[in-house]
Design goal:
heterodimer, A: mainly alpha, two-stranded antiparallel sheet, 23 helices, B: alpha/beta, 8-stranded parallel beta barrel, two-stranded antiparallel ribbon, 15 helices
Chain lengths: ~475, ~450
């Protein structure tokens, strides 16, 4: 029953989240994700998630983490195709590795190496996989279907304008996809129980959660099915215990147990019955250690957020000229908070946002940057600022967005076709939404002139400039 | 294990490809149906087929079919490649019914039209059909160019002569003087006529009244091809203006006693579909006849018109046009008046752009798909309303449909906003459209609809 419930909830959630990435749902669900909520200082969501974990255990990992559910889907295929090969056994918790990774990430955070947490944040990894791999495939299929429906007048479907997100972005997403798929296929939820920083943080709380999966040693016949099927390798059937810091509440053992010896219940009922475990095996953190970890984690994150500037700027330095989406007070803050989930890139109706390659320095890759060769920032659109779950792109009302200066246009006379080829142009001035560009008389000619106070850097002039190289180029502020 | 692998493969195919497969199947099925129809027709007893009407073409002393097959709009496969199999079967169908006039040109289908029609007609006796080609003056800068192109045309068409040969797209006195007189291309074509590689020499005309008068008064021609349709036809009492000069042009040719061939009788397909009121009136007058048939019959009803050309790209058009011209009865004077203004509200279609999709303007140096923009505007943009009046509150279903169709059918790089009004297309347009003005209008409309749609505004 609980197994069914959790599968249903998980599927419903991942479908909804993915649909919002693919443009099928207007309001994305990404704000429930843990790391984005922390970055957005969304105390309500963080609080609810922490309390939820303290009561239920890692329910977040079971139904709200898209990468976790994705791994479960991979694992489901394995179950269907290679049932006999599923032979997990209990493994000791890799305490040093888990907390080592978390510590490194937190230190990196404080030092301003914001790319490191983003690299391992499960939600953002999933976002990148959808944006760069699933979306193009889905768009192809959808466009084919649209061709049919439109030609038969069954309805008028708007096709996607399929854009190439760049080799690097696709290769990186493909790398993640292969890695996660192979890990899930061979080791189940290995990522979640040893690598994932969010998993480690929540696992620290769930170690003491109110409810958990318990093995009733009176009913247990020791068949070992639960241990063999446990994708987190956290069921220790010999000692009738389940490591709740790693258990992701997949509920499979609960469903599988032939004698119904496993229950989801209050911890105390069985803890008294735990057999004595040799000291070196019992790597449980004391409550004091837990408080220390949690305190250190929250403290460093708060410190990082508060400082908002990088000490190792050489490595994370943003190129001065890159244009960031409107809504961020400065580039530093934007890069600090963005986890490169690429939701904004997926949802940008003008497709002017693309995953950065080197625009933000070595470690800013994957974060959104405006590329005016693909389009321009529509004056009447504030999509990116309203979907960003981390607050990297701050929320902006449309009217406010229309006054935000994200860059300024520079006119290069030597590239302009009016001078180069003597053609009649002025397409930049014609398409400027703020009338910052005017055609001024210079001798016999009318040449564009940029009023830098009026210019907001939307890039309409650059996009509409017919010259190669562009005579109008927008540089980030 | 093999069984399990199969299941995996099946899952993959079903999951990813299902929709695509259905789509392809639907497209293929339709084409297969057409081909099956044509194959079936081929096997029927030809004795039962009523041949299409013909008329004596005096210069050749031959009977020509009243309907000619224009080779500018063959059916295409994905992309712009001609669907040669379907084209051949359509041509054969027309040939079996007596269509014997085939009109191609150097630039149609990017030069592939000549090759395709030559290959298709090769199997028939050469004297059983008229093959017609044209000299592209706009691509000729010297006599050598003309000679090279003419030889290339013969080679592409796999023939030794053309029955009718035209000076293509005469519209500009300066160009005519430069190419045909100064470079001596007209004399060269006359020498080819003397040598028998051209049987009859004429020209296709897209200019104003004055140039036509000059041409027919000063040079000997055996025939002329003009555009003629009921919307651009002016009666003697109406002086020629803008596009409405076709009546004047025709009357000049009739006075000169020249045989007339007609192109664009349906205005690039625009007269195949009229407004609801106009359709109702014409249908109540003759329920059996298609709307397009009125345009074909109007053109053919003038006494000097020998053959009416139609660039047919699908089988329905071929069948309909052949039916129209089989057992042909000219429109009465009353019918001619009726079709020019069926519902009594002529002029309401003024918003349409007079483009016939001939693509002479292409390629645009800045990437704009000019005919593509105009087609979409005529089909969906006019219904969307005026740009200035579109607001979020008044946003209509039609405006939304225009935006979606525009996005679906034109890549962003070909949108009207890339027109910089350089004007290079202006001299190339046989309809003399103010293309940059129209582009600006479309761009403004798209921008207004996009703004009113509020996409991206949250």
């Amino acid at each position: 029953m609980l197994f069914r419930l959790r599968v249903t909830l998980a599927l419903a959630f991942i479908v909804a989240l993915t649909a919002s990435f693919l443009g099928l749902l207007a309001r994305p669900l990404a704000w429930v994700e843990f790391l984005p909520a922390v970055l957005a200082v969304n105390l309500l969501v963080v609080g609810v998630l922490v309390i939820l974990t303290a009561i239920l255990g890692r329910a977040y990992c079971a139904v709200l983490c898209p990468l976790g559910i994705f791994q479960d889907i991979v694992f489901w295929f394995k179950k269907r195709l290679r049932q006999k090969h599923i032979k997990f056994s209990y493994k000791k918790e890799a305490v040093r590795l888990r907390y080592g990774i978390l510590a490194v990430l937190l230190v990196a955070w404080v030092l301003g190496l914001y790319f490191l947490p983003a690299l391992l944040d499960p939600y953002s990894i999933y976002g990148r996989m959808v944006t760069n791999l699933l979306a193009p495939l889905w768009q192809q299929v959808f466009n084919q279907a649209a061709t049919i429906t439109n030609s038969h007048a069954w309805g008028l479907w708007e096709k996607y304008d399929i854009v190439f997100q760049g080799t690097l972005a696709i290769v990186v997403a493909l790398g993640y996809f292969m890695l996660i798929t192979i890990l899930a296929w061979r080791y189940g939820r290995h990522y979640c129980q040893t690598i994932c920083p969010v998993g480690t943080m929540l696992g620290t709380i769930s170690r003491f959660s109110l409810l958990r999966l318990n093995i009733d040693d009176k009913k247990c016949v020791g068949c070992g099915l639960c241990e063999r099927h446990c994708r987190s390798s956290c069921v220790d059937v010999k000692n009738h215990r389940i490591d709740n810091s790693r258990c992701v509440l997949c509920m499979e053992c609960l469903a599988d147990c032939p004698v119904k010896a496993i229950s989801y219940s209050h911890a105390v009922t069985t803890q008294t019955k735990i057999k004595t475990v040799p000291a070196e095996q019992s790597i449980e953190l004391s409550r004091r250690a837990f408080l220390l970890t949690a305190g250190a984690a929250l403290g460093t994150m708060a410190a990082g957020l508060a400082r908002g500037k990088s000490d190792l700027s050489v490595l994370a330095a943003p190129a001065e000229k890159a244009v960031i989406p409107p809504g961020s007070s400065n580039k530093q803050q934007f890069l600090q908070k963005c986890t490169a989930c690429q939701l904004c890139i997926s949802k940008c109706p003008e497709q002017v946002l693309k995953p950065a390659t080197t625009e933000y320095g070595l470690f800013g890759k994957g974060k959104p940057v405006l590329d005016y060769r693909r389009g321009y920032c529509n004056f009447y659109c504030n999509t990116c600022s309203s979907v960003c779950p981390t607050g990297a792109i701050g929320s902006l009302a449309l009217q406010a967005k229309q006054t935000v200066k994200i860059g300024v246009a520079n006119y290069d006379m030597h590239s302009c076709l009016i001078l180069k080829e003597g053609v009649f142009c002025g397409n930049c001035a014609l398409h400027c939404p703020t009338e910052a560009i005017t055609m001024e008389q210079m001798g016999d000619l009318h040449l564009p002139h940029v009023n830098e106070t009026k210019c907001i850097g939307c890039g309409s002039c650059e996009y509409h400039c017919p010259a190669t190289p562009k005579a109008m180029r927008v540089e980030g502020k | 294990m093999t069984k399990k692998m199969d299941r995996r493969a099946a899952l993959k195919i079903m999951g990813a490809g299902a929709l695509g497969v259905v789509g392809l199947a639907a497209g293929i099925a339709n084409r297969e149906k057409l081909i099956a129809f044509l194959d079936h027709d081929k096997e029927q007893n030809q004795a039962n087929v009523t041949p299409i009407d013909t008329l004596l073409y005096k210069p050749a002393n031959k009977q020509l079919s009243r309907l000619g097959f224009g080779c500018m709009r063959f059916p295409t496969k994905s992309g712009d490649a001609i669907d040669t199999e379907l084209t051949e079967k359509m041509i054969d169908y027309a040939y079996r019914r007596g269509v014997n006039y085939f009109d191609t040109a150097y630039i149609y289908h990017g030069g592939k039209s000549e090759t395709v029609i030559g290959q298709i007609l090769k199997k028939y006796p050469r004297e059983s059909f008229f093959l017609v080609d044209k000299m592209p003056a706009y691509m000729v800068s010297s006599l050598a160019d003309a000679k090279r192109i003419f030889q290339e045309q013969l080679d592409r068409c796999q023939t030794t002569y053309f029955d009718n040969y035209l000076l293509h797209y005469l519209h500009d006195r300066e160009e005519f003087d430069r190419v045909y007189i100064k470079q001596g291309v007209l004399d060269y074509l006359r020498s080819e006529r003397a040598a028998g590689r051209i049987k009859h020499l004429g020209f296709s005309y897209h200019g104003n009244q004055g140039l036509l008068d000059y041409l027919v008064d000063n040079f000997p021609w055996e025939f002329v091809m003009i555009q003629l349709n009921y919307q651009d036809w002016n009666e003697p009492e109406e002086p020629p203006h803008d596009a409405r000069i076709e009546g004047s042009l025709y009357r000049k040719l009739e006075a000169k006693g020249l045989p007339v061939f007609v192109m664009e009788p349906v205005k690039g397909g625009r007269l195949a579909k009229l407004s609801e009121e106009d359709t109702r009136v014409l249908k109540s007058h003759e329920p059996q006849r298609s709307i397009a048939s009125w345009a074909i019959r109007f053109a053919a009803s003038h006494q000097n018109v020998v053959t009416v050309l139609s660039g047919m790209s699908d089988l329905n058009q071929v069948v309909d046009n052949i039916n129209t011209m089989t057992d042909f009865k000219p429109l009465t004077e009353a019918e001619q008046k009726l079709v020019q203004n069926p519902a009594g509200n002529a002029g309401e279609n003024d918003k349409l752009i007079n483009c016939t999709n001939c693509k002479y303007c292409m390629p645009c140096p800045y990437g704009v798909d000019i005919p593509g923009n105009f087609q979409l505007f005529n089909k969906y943009g006019v219904a969307a309303g005026e740009a200035e009046e579109i607001t979020a509150a008044s946003f209509s279903k039609e405006a939304k449909a225009f935006l979606i169709q525009y996005k679906n059918n034109l890549p962003k790089a070909a949108w009207a906003d890339h027109c910089i009004r350089c004007g290079k297309c202006l001299s190339k347009c046989p309809q003399h459209l103010p293309i940059p003005q129209h582009m600006r209008k479309i761009d403004t409309l798209v921008a207004a609809v996009k703004k009113a749609d509020g996409r991206g505004t949250i």
